Amino acid sequence: AGEGSAPVPGDGAGPPASERVLFPPTFSVSEIKNKQRRHFMFLRWKQQQRKEKLALKKKRRKEREALGDKAPPKAIPKTIENQRVYDETTVDSNDEEVAFDEATDEFAPYFNRQTVPKILITTSDRPRGRTVRFCEQLATVIPNSHVYYRRGLALKRIIPQCIARDFTDLIVINEDRKVPNGLVLSHLPDGPTAHFRMSSVRLRKEIKRKGKEPTEHVPEVILNNFTTRLGHSIGRMFAALFPHDPQFIGRQVATFHNQRDYIFFRFHRYIFKSEKKVGIQELGPRFTLKLRSLQKGTFDSKFGEYEWIHKRREMDTSRRKFHL
């Protein structure tokens, strides 16, 4: 019903035939009518594939050890990241035009140390418990941040009040079906405003092997893979949330890692065990962001001018095309 005596095609690197589960060359799990039998045979076939892959890996490692210095260089595996379609807006570190634009943009006062970040974190109307807890935990990650609840106020009314009270950024956490699903980040007083889709939110109690509660030390900030002009703008928005001069004694790190246009946020504490080994503990919360739009100025859903909008049908034509 699926097993046969014909050997599996390959280069002979797998275990002896007596130790292998043998399938005919034309074996297809879908031909098995019985559901339980089909599932069982699929698991056996996958197990055989793993064994053959491991045996081939061991064989190549032994060959490299035998050749020593004469061994050929390791082949670089093809991934979606290293096969990325070239983006003409990729930033060169020596580009004078980019340097001039960044020296005169809305974030220049922060990077010139003329302003100190002060963040207001709020929610959509009538937030549920999970969203409230997420905002409270986010406030422990971002120094000098304050959590206030909307109480029915429109964002257009909140923004002038924030500017009058010297807030430099506004973060709005939206929710759907009691789950946080969106984040609006507006840099004050002149913008820009970014709208993100939020997913994979994990609160501290939901993270396994988490560390103790974070301290009030200013964390270090790591920004990974924001390589295009758009990516630089988003990276500068995240950087402007945290004060300069992190307190290294706290050993806390906030990481924004961009991979395939998904921004993964993690908050860790580290400790040096030796000169070569470092131990890390995740403190939480964690979440994933996907940029939906970047708007000039502060939040204005009706008359705002957009710098960039994610148009899925037009932009997602290739899996190797990324925008950040």
Task: Note the total helix count.
Answer: 7
| Largest sheet entry | 11 strands, mixed
Radius of gyration: 26 Å
- Distance separating the two termini: 50 Å
The global form is globular
The CATH superfamily title of the largest domain: Brix domain
- Poorly predicted ranges: 1-15
Please indicate the percent range of residues in DSSP E strands (runs of 2 or more).
15-25%
Topology, number of strands: 11
Number of domains: 2
Summarize the structure.
By secondary structure, the protein is an alpha+beta fold. Helices cover 26% and strands 24% of the residues.
List keywords for this structure.
eleven-stranded mixed beta sheet, globular, alpha+beta, 324 residues, rRNA processing, ribosome biogenesis, Rossmann fold, Ribosome production factor 1, Brix, IMP4/RPF1, disordered N terminus
Characterization of this structure:
- The chain folds into two domains: 29-70; 88-316, Brix domain (Rossmann fold, 3-Layer(aba) Sandwich).
- The protein contains seven helices and eleven strands.
- The protein has helices spanning 35-67, 96-104, 108-111, 129-141, 155-164, 229-239, 312-315; strands at residues 119-123, 145-147, 169-176, 179-187, 193-202, 220-224, 252-259, 262-272, 278-282, 286-295, 306-309.
- It is globular.
- The two termini are 50 Å apart.
